[in-house]
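User: Okay, second chain of the day. Same drill as before: sequence in, C-alpha cells out.
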Amino acid sequence: MKLKKLYSSREVAQLTGLTARQLQWWAKRNLFPPAVESHKTEAGGFTERRYSPIELLELMVLADLRRKGFTVARIRKLLQVLRTRFKTRLYEAIEGGGPVTLFIDGDNIYARTVAGDLFSILDNAAQPLMMMGEDIKLRQLIARERPMRRRAKGRASADKRGASQP
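Assistant: Same drill. C-alpha cells below.
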C-alpha cells in the first residue's frame, strides 16, 4: 500500500471494509472524525471527508475489531481510555510504538505499559491485572489492510446467465 497525504472516504472504505455510511456516522457522532471534514462547495455539492495515513491505520484496526464483533460502544470506550488513562492515541498503541501496546484475546483488549503492567481496557483500565499461567493467548493488535474478496466462479457464471434472461 502506497501512503498518501490524505485519503478520501471512498479509499478508506475500500481499504478497511467499513462503509462510507459507517464513516459518516462515526464522524457525525464524534467517534472518529476525519482530518478534513466534508464541506459545501460553491456549486452546491459537498466535498468528501479526508483521512490522514495515521487515521487510516487506526480505522483499519477499528474495522478489524468490528469484524470480530466489538460494538461501537466498546470501540468508543477503547479510544476514550487510551486518550484519558494512557494519554495516547490508538496509532501509538498498535504495533508497540508508544507508551502502551495493545493485545487482544478475542473478547477483550489489554494494554501493556513499557514497565510491563497489564490492564484490561474495556473492564477496568485503572486496575493492573495479575497474569498467571501460560493458558492465556494474547496477540498483538496491529493494522491490517482488508483482504480483497475474490468472486466465486460459480456465482460469476450464474450472474452472467441471469443477466441475459429477461
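Residues 7-146 form a domain with the Multidrug-efflux Transporter Regulator; Chain: A; Domain 2 fold (CATH 1.10.1660.10).

User: Thanks, on to the next one.
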